[in-house]
Design goal:
heterodimer; A: alpha+beta; Rossmann fold; 11-stranded mixed β-sheet; 5-stranded parallel β-sheet; 27 helices; 55 strands; flat; B: 143 residues; alpha+beta; 5-stranded antiparallel β-sheet; 5 strands; endoplasmic reticulum (chain B); Longin-like_dom_sf (chain B); ER-Golgi transport (chain B); golgi apparatus (chain B); Sedlin (chain B)
Chain lengths: 1190, 143
């Protein structure tokens, strides 16, 4: 596109001219240029110089004579440039006002200048504007003078302007601005009028003379289109450009190839220019689809117009340029392409495809045609060899577009002399020789390739890259070629396009040969030889060009390459180097080592699979390992020696080829290296070579085969990474082939599951680890677990004991962190580890105990000789009932040499249950036969908490009992009631208990209960009573047996609930003797106490009883005075002996509407048949009040 | 005239490629077939651009080179068929018909119990059948 002149590439801009008053030109031209659309200005300093600008119109007006000879050309080369830079549409004559109003001589001069100007413009229809410049707003020109000027210049009043120039500045410059504005609008109007008139004039010519020669019609259409462009009427411009294009096409429609070379060149040049204009207009209008379709049509019309065979390279060059220019056009408007997203696939005749919107596509084709051009040019050059003609030098482009002429000096003047076709061809060939097409082709392909790759169109990109690399190769730029070829080869390898890969590898092989890179050459040769090109492919007649270095893709060629490369590696052949002249060979000074890893394309050449027959082996015992090798090279070959390398270098061994004993001598025998000999190490195509050997390792851990190194010939080795048969990838490329699938091992199971690594176990431990605890642990106590380490054969060096506590429900969580998480706030914790012989933890060396956490401990074990033993005790405390798992593991090394020995581990685990030892309960009771009325009990409010309530001012009884719920007998050491909180505060109640504290520990067998009775008297006038905690100390009753529990006593506390205190309004107490005697009357008192300040009304009733005769009122209503007591007396005579029910007394309080009836137990009395005789024994106060009850 | 047909597998590897030209442009045809896979990818990955050809096995004209036209076809198992022809005026119906017959031949070939899916098609019967289909291409509509 750059080779087009500027006037072609940009849309035309209107041109005006200002004459005279040169001091104003800058401001006017700047202003006009800033307009939208801009206007270019042509400035002349003086009116009298106007004739310099406007050369008189050529006298030859277009004749209407149809018999006139056809025009010499289609388009004038300079026409467009002339109209853009030389022929203004409007001329403005500027002169200062004093020339009008001043002296007559000046006026006359002005008149003659204006006349001259008018005469110049008349023939060209150029519009005239007269501008009178007033430097001072005050020097007005009279109306008469203005009319005179107008008449003289013969312009419309509209086009006679007064321009106010303010050299001194008029403050804001508004007058200047206004003048500029007026001038600008007049220019715009007149310019547009001029271009329209010109367009109309030419259009009329087209319409008037249908018999015009087509050349003229093309020219006229072109001109109309250009004028339309000046006016920015793109639609009309497009229409007339297309008209011109079609007319041009008709020009050669029938003549086919009979046209002369120069004529065809001219037509194509014009077509190119018209096409360029049309494409630009379409693309600028955003009509990308139309543009592409137009280009396709343009291409289709002219592709076949190759012209004369000797000038065919001109055609290819032209084609290439079409594609290049269009590619650049599409690329520059690619922003527009992105916006047109869903491409309509179906246009009228043929669907457009994706690539036709990509500049890369056009670049690629431009390169393609340029290659065509190069080959035809080379041919043309070879044909014209010898005809040296210097006359080509004076050939220049002639005045018509696409024509060339010879410039001949005739005296002073130069004369254009037309060329004949032969001369022109010589000129064209000599011009063509000047250019290096190869670089151009590479640049085009590179652009295309990058553009495709950016859009992730990899295959097209690779194809371009392939062509580019071939160009590089042809140019001898092997490093660039190799780089491109390598990129492409990887894609073809990946997708399995063997024939394409073969071709690329052929080039790569040649590149490395020419760069004398022996290693690369051998690698590429090996890969080529191992490619899956079967005999079938060779049937397909691939007749490759001679120049292609890969040769035919046949099995024969593979074998040839195979032979060559083996000749090279064995040192028999040399690699003929091009670059530095000397031959290269693989020899002593130049050994060769190839690495084949898991992704290398050379896996085809040699694949090593290693399988251990056992997944786990014992240290020191031997297992079998199978080594399998596979090659896809077409010819059989022998390996001289194989070296198998493991991660444990002690296991490495070498396999010698038994058929080649002479090679064995060459090995520098390393001492201690294991050497095996195989009967044969020959590899044939697609057939596994299987070798099985014993292997033995003393070290525990992983034993893995790393690589297999094959040595072929004295200086060539291939190192092949070992692969597990179980996880082996298919061979690339060969996996698509229909071939016999074989297994690397004889045993198919091993082929599916075999691994290149095996696990060597640890040696068996010869140390006993014993956990001595049994039975459940009790909550609160420090549970002791004795751990004993006894050596039975191994010495224990640097032993370490790890202790883990794991929640059973949490599963087998060994890690200390997890156990901590699972045991929220440590329900069970490891308190400490005490050393042997009952040593205290504190007495142990601080170095030895390394770490104790709540659930994890680490302790070191001292050196133990075989037979020795060592023990320690773990102290564990439970806070909640929870079963836990105790894991203890001992790690030690059996040898004293710490550096290389491995740790042996012993693990033991024990599940321990944590249980509650004692359950403490309590009960509140009231004194016998005394019933305070508690209103909260009679009317329970559902919302209040169901805490116990107690009458204030009364003495209540608290019964505390402790029950042994464990499986072992316990010793109770003390039981006490302790009020929590500080002692400073007054006790709100007094507690007494009948008996003394325990003097001796009480033995509590499993299931037994221990009770203690307290009397509680509230002393404070508060509503709540905090009773505090019951504290019980106990320990296991060890007796004589050795117990794992500690001797320390354990404190168990039980919190007593708070008690509500209530004032009872009424207290009823029943009084009767402790026993009665048959027939002997006794008195039964009912005492009702009113504790309120109110009069209390109560209804009483007494039911008859069978066993008693009763005297007293059965039913009555009584009134009890405030703070007084009412006593009701009954006289009773028992009629039956034994435990008898007293008559039931009932009281109903009217005020509280509640009733009272004593319980059955409290209204029972024992009646003796006769007066009993008691033996009176003094009962001491020191009697234990505590009762032991079942 | 059909100059090349190809069957391309899942990994864009050629399963069967056969050219029917005497000229030595087999390699060039391989390149063309390989490049056309880009268009297939593009159409499969951006189905909304493809518009009316959505959900159709026939992919239509893949791309025009200067001398060839390339058509594509995608089976339900994502195996691609590629056709390269030198005819400039090809009827869509002919191409569709060709692919239908080609697909049938392919199905028969891979139904062979001894054929392993994903491997190259080496059946001679298939090759013969394909060459028959290729020879009869375009005859049905013209004749």
């Amino acid at each position: 596109m750059e080779e087009y002149p500027e006037e072609m590439r940009s849309p035309p801009v209107s041109l005006v001219s200002v004459v005279g008053c040169s001091e104003l030109h800058t401001s006017i031209s700047t202003y006009l240029h800033s307009l939208d659309p801009p206007i270019n200005t042509l400035a002349l300093p003086d009116l009298s110089k106007a004739s310099l600008l406007l050369t008189p119109k050529p006298t030859t007006t277009p004749t209407s004579d149809s018999t006139a000879p056809p025009p010499a050309g289609i388009l004038k080369r300079e026409w467009l440039l002339k109209h853009r830079t030389k022929v203004p549409s409007v001329v403005a004559a500027l002169f200062s006002s004093d020339r009008v109003s001043g002296d007559p001589a000046q006026w006359l001069q002005l008149c003659s200048d204006l006349d001259n100007l008018k005469a110049l413009l008349r023939g060209r229809n150029i519009k005239l504007v007269v501008v009178v410049v007033c430097s001072n707003p005050n020097d007005e020109i009279s109306e008469d003078q203005m009319v005179a000027v107008r008449k003289r210049a013969d312009v419309d009043a509209k086009y006679l302007l007064t321009f106010y120039q303010n050299p001194d500045g008029d403050g804001d410059g508004s007058q200047l601005k206004e003048s500029l504005y007026r001038l600008g609008s007049v220019f715009v109007e007149l310019a547009s009028k001029y271009y329209r008139d010109e367009g109309r004039r030419i259009k009329a010519r087209i319409e008037r003379k249908s018999s015009n020669p087509p050349e003229l019609n093309i020219r006229y259409s072109f001109k109309v289109a250009v004028y339309a462009e000046f006016r920015r009427d793109w639609a009309e411009a497009l229409r007339f450009y297309e008209d011109a294009y079609h007319t041009l096409r008709e020009l050669i429609a029938g003549t086919s190839n009979r046209v002369s070379i120069q004529r065809l060149v001219e037509i194509k040049t014009v077509a190119e220019q018209l096409h360029f204009k049309i494409s630009t207009l379409l693309l600028h209008g955003g009509k990308i689809i139309e543009a592409v379709a137009w280009f396709r049509q343009h291409n289709a019309s002219y592709r076949k117009l190759v012209g004369a065979p000797e000038a065919i390279f001109l055609h290819w060059e032209w084609m290439s340029r079409q594609f290049l220019v269009f590619a650049e056009l599409v690329e520059t408007s690619s922003a527009a392409i992105q916006s047109i997203s869903p491409l309509p696939m179906d246009t009228a005749d043929r669907p457009l495809t994706e690539w036709e919107f990509q500049p890369a596509h056009y670049y690629q084709l431009a390169a393609h045609y340029l290659k065509e051009k190069r080959s035809s040019l080379e041919f043309a050059v070879s044909m014209s060899e010898g005809e040296i003609d210097c006359s080509a030098e004076s050939v220049v482009p002639s005045s018509y577009l696409g024509q060339f002429a010879r410039l001949i000096e005739q005296g002073d003047a130069f004369v254009m002399q037309p060329l004949n076709d032969e001369e022109y061809m010589r000129y064209a060939i000599s011009e063509g020789k000047r250019f290096q097409d190869s670089f151009e082709i590479i640049a085009l392909l590179k652009k295309s390739c990058e553009s495709y790759n950016n859009r992730k169109v990899r295959r097209m990109g690779s194809f371009c890259g392939f062509q580019m690399a071939r160009e590089y190769y042809a140019l001898g730029d092997f490093s660039n070629a190799k780089q491109s070829f390598d990129d492409i080869a990887s894609l073809y390898r990946q997708e399995g396009w063997v024939t394409l890969l073969w071709e690329v590898l052929g080039y790569l092989r040649e590149c490395s040969r020419k760069q004398s890179r022996v290693k690369d050459f051998i690698e590429y040769s090996f890969e080529m030889a191992a490619l899956p090109i079967s005999a079938d492919a060779s049937i397909q007649s691939f007749r490759f060009e001679e120049s292609r270095p890969a040769g035919p893709a046949t099995i024969l060629q593979r074998e040839t390459i195979n032979k060559e490369v083996f000749g090279l590696v064995s040192g028999e052949l040399r690699l003929a180097s091009i670059e530095n002249g000397n031959d290269l060979k693989v020899c002593d000074g130049n050994p060769l080592h190839l690495e084949i890893d898991l992704v290398s394309p050379l896996r085809l050449v040699l694949l090593a699979s290693v399988a251990f027959h056992e997944q786990i082996i014992k240290p020191g015992s031997s297992t079998l390992v199978t080594l399998s090798l596979l090659s896809q090279l077409p010819l059989n070959f022998e390996i001289d020696q194989l070296e198998v390398q493991f991660n444990q270098s002690d296991c490495n061994f070498i396999i010698m080829n038994g058929q080649r004993p002479h090679v064995a001598a060459m090995i520098d025998s390393q001492p201690g290296r294991r050497i095996e000999t195989a009967p044969s190490l020959a590899l044939s195509t697609n057939k596994w070579l299987r070798l099985t050997y014993n292997i033995k390792s003393d070290k525990s851990g992983k034993l893995e085969c790393i690589s297999v190194i094959a040595k072929i010939g004295p200086h060539f080795t291939i190192c092949c990474r070992a692969e597990s048969p179980a996880s082996m990838d298919d061979l690339p490329l060969w996996k698509f082939e229909d071939r016999v699938v074989t297994y690397p091992t004889k045993d198919p199971a091993l082929a599916f599951s075999g691994q290149k690594a095996t696990q060597v176990e640890e040696p068996d431990p010869e140390v006993d680890l014993n956990l001595g605890a049994f039975g459940p642990a009790l909550i609160g106590e420090s549970f002791i677990v004795p751990v004993t380490v006894t050596s039975k054969g191994h010495d224990v060096n640097s032993g370490e004991l790890k202790i883990n506590l794991v929640d059973v429900r949490g599963g087998g969580l060994f890690s200390p962190r997890d156990t901590e998480l699972s045991m929220d706030s440590h329900h069970v914790e490891l308190l400490g580890i005490s050393g042997p012989d009952g040593e205290d933890e504190s007495q142990l060396n601080t170095d030895e105990i390394k770490k104790i956490q709540q659930s994890f401990g680490l302790v070191s074990v001292p050196f133990l000789k075989s037979g020795d033993s060592w023990s320690c005790k773990l102290e564990i405390k439970w806070h909640r009932p929870k079963p836990i798992m105790l894991y203890v593991s001992l790690g030690y090394s059996p040898d004293t040499n710490e550096s290389n020995t491995q740790k042996v581990n012993v693990h033991k685990s024990l599940q321990i249950e944590g249980k509650n030892a004692i359950i403490i309960s309590h009960r509140f009771m009231l004194p016998f036969r005394r019933y305070p009325l508690l209103l909260s009990r009679t009317r329970p409010v559902p919302d209040t908490d169901q805490s116990a309530s107690m009458p204030s001012n009364e003495t209540s009884v608290l019964l505390v009992s402790a029950k042994n719920c464990s499986d072992v007998p316990l010793q109770l050491l003390s039981l006490s009631l302790e009020v929590d909180g500080n002692d400073g505060t007054e006790r709100s109640f007094s507690v007494q208990h009948g008996g003394k504290d325990l003097l001796d520990p009480a033995l509590l067998v499993p299931g037994e209960e221990f009770k203690k009775v307290y009397t509680v008297t509230p002393e404070m006038n508060s509503s709540k009573l905090k009773l505090g905690n019951v504290c019980l100390t106990w320990r296991r009753d060890s007796g004589s047996e050795v117990q794992s529990g500690s001797k320390a006593s354990v404190l168990t506390t039980h919190r007593l609930p708070d008690v509500n205190l209530e004032l009872s309004p009424l207290v009823v107490s029943l009084e009767c003797p402790p026993y009665a005697i048959l027939g002997d009357p006794f008195t039964y008192f009912v005492r009702i106490q009113n504790q309120t300040e109110l009069l209390q009304e109560a209804k009483i009733s007494l039911a008859d009883a069978q066993s008693f005769v009763l005297a007293g009122s059965h039913n009555d209503a009584i009134f009890i005075l405030p703070k007084s007591e009412h006593i009701i007396r009954y006289k009773l005579v028992p009629l039956a002996s034994g435990a008898q029910q007293l008559p039931r007394f009932t009281l109903a309080s009217v005020r509280y509407s509640t009733g009272f009836q004593p319980s059955v137990a409290s209204s029972t009395i024992f009646v003796f048949p006769s007066k009993p005789h008691f033996k009176m024994v003094a009962v001491g106060d020191d009697r234990l009040e505590s009762l032991v009850a079942e | 005239m059909i100059v090349c047909v190809a069957v391309v597998g899942h990994q864009n590897n050629p399963l069967y490629i056969q050219s029917f030209t005497d000229a030595d442009d087999a390699l060039k045809l391989h390149h063309i077939v390989h490049c056309s896979l880009d268009v297939v990818d593009e159409r499969v990955n951006n189905p909304k651009k493809a518009g009316p050809t959505l959900n159709e096995t026939f992919l239509g004209l893949l791309y025009p080179t200067e001398n060839y036209k390339v058509y594509g076809y995608l089976t339900n198992t994502k195996v691609k068929f590629i056709l390269v022809t030198t005819d400039l005026d090809v009827k869509d119906a002919d191409v569709r018909n060709f692919f239908r017959r080609f697909h049938a031949a392919y199905v028969d070939a891979i139904s062979n119990p001894f054929h392993e899916p994903g491997k190259k098609i080496t059946s001679k019967t298939f090759a013969e059948r394909v060459s028959t289909i290729v020879k009869s291409f375009g005859l049905s509509s013209t004749g």
